[in-house]
Amino acid sequence: MPEFVNFIGGRWVAPETGLTRPNVNPADTSDVIGEFAESGGVDVESAVEAARAAQQGWHDLGPIRRAEHLREAWRLLDQRGEEFARAITREQGKLLSEARGEVQRSLAVLDFTTGEARRLNGVTTPAEEPRTWAFTFRRPIGVVGLITPWNFPLAIPMWKVAPALLAGCPAVFKPSPLTPLTAELLTQVFADAGLPPGVLNLVQGDRPVGEALVAHDAVAGISFTGSVPVGTAIQRAGAHRLLKTQLELGGKNAVVVLDDADLEVAVDAIVKGAFGQAGQRCSATSRVVADSRILDELVDRLAARVSAMRVGPGTDPASDICPVVNEDRLQACLAAVARAQDDGAKVVCGGNAAPDLPDGYYVEPTVLRDVPWDAEIAQEEVFGPVLSVIAADGFDDAMRIANSVRYGMSGTICTRDQSRIFAALDRFEAGMLHVNRPGVGAYAHLPHVGSKQSQHGPPECSPQVWDFYTEWRSACISY
Ligand code: NAD
């Protein structure tokens, strides 16, 4: 069984805890990928120390020299792209085509971030005194902790590692314990790109590692992607020292379908948004809010499309839907469907574990109708291939229902009416908006942004990301 360790101060080292945990393929649980480090607070201590030691030298290089390492990492990742895609599919479960897409998104983030090196500028302003210049510039905040989930094991870490390094912040990266292999490969690419020791450190493990990072006084900022409960725990734990945080959290995203929508366009947007990656995306469509005048027809078309989808391993080109990530997720999906039925929802299709695939964590793609807008399944994240259809009485009611949740990640509307498109863009309480297209997907140069409890702090991607990894200075020079 291969054993995988941490990367601290430029060396691959076993965890001080001496503990490991197995990593299993969700498509076939007999495939054990390896034993990965189960680290603890002592390992975090060493990693933060290594990062602090690297800080001044890394800062002194300046962004344009630092970007050369990112450019080399881009080249190495591009060269090893297929190996990365296969690793992602093997440990996270998504379809190989989706994993290849994730590699491309990660390359795009590296590409965008590298180019930003020449744009990390401030402004020169008028001064109040004569013979004086006044201006602003950015400084890196210091050592950062990067805590990531399992659903995008390459792209989300890349959203954090690339800007942290370019900004001049040495990093301690703590990936999800469910996807340690991709984290190891990502770290290898940066190590092979010639980063000085300590600039990027990898500490594998679960909650104790995350907690130790958040608690460490020398960590100036935490960039976290994951669930709302863990995000709020991090915010609480760092509040006493005003820890800088960037929290990318959950979603309960709606596609609003109005009575004038092209229903084929709407069905396509819904199916891609709800069942891609088996619904395990923060921006996944989990609610359809449909005008009751077209609801029956929409549900019939959805049922025809969804019941024909094939659940199977990500490596099989015939699969339309991948497994969910582990047994907990599978049970959580089935339990959510059962509770929804108690609340009055009816199963249109799916609702069970896939019967003929006992070796992995496969959930049938599920559509529920007659879902009350305030039922638990319409309010809380399921994070699986489960879609709730909710009836609305016209545009205003649809927008009220779409906004009735505590989350605000993505919002989508399907209509041919221009004025209702603009009204919806204005009224959605969500960060990433889509019209007549799937409500998922992100560009490296657009902010990955949420509203309400979906996000806190400066967003990732886009030039807005510098507001997390850097802080402003203002300066005046008299001569
Ligand atoms: P999670 O919150 O359970 O775990 C996320 C990470 O936090 C893991 O690395 C975990 O080990 C670590 N962690 C757990 N407890 C901690 C603690 N007390 N202190 C510090 N770190 C701790 O989330 P998950 O199950 O890995 O991922 C699914 C969640 O992520 C969903 O809610 C999903 O919506 C969200 N997500 C959000 C985005 C986004 O960009 N907003 C993207 C992807 C996933």
Automatic annotation (TrEMBL):
Record-annotated Aldehyde dehydrogenase domain positions: 12-474
InterPro entries per the UniProt record, alphabetical: Ald_DH/histidinol_DH, Ald_DH_C, Ald_DH_CS_CYS, Ald_DH_CS_GLU, Ald_DH_N, Aldehyde_DH_dom, Aldehyde_DH_Superfamily
Active site, per annotation: E248
UniProt KW keywords: Oxidoreductase
Pfam families hit by this protein: Aldedh
Similarity annotation: Belongs to the aldehyde dehydrogenase family.
Protein name, per record: Aldehyde dehydrogenase family protein
Source organism: Saccharopolyspora oryzae
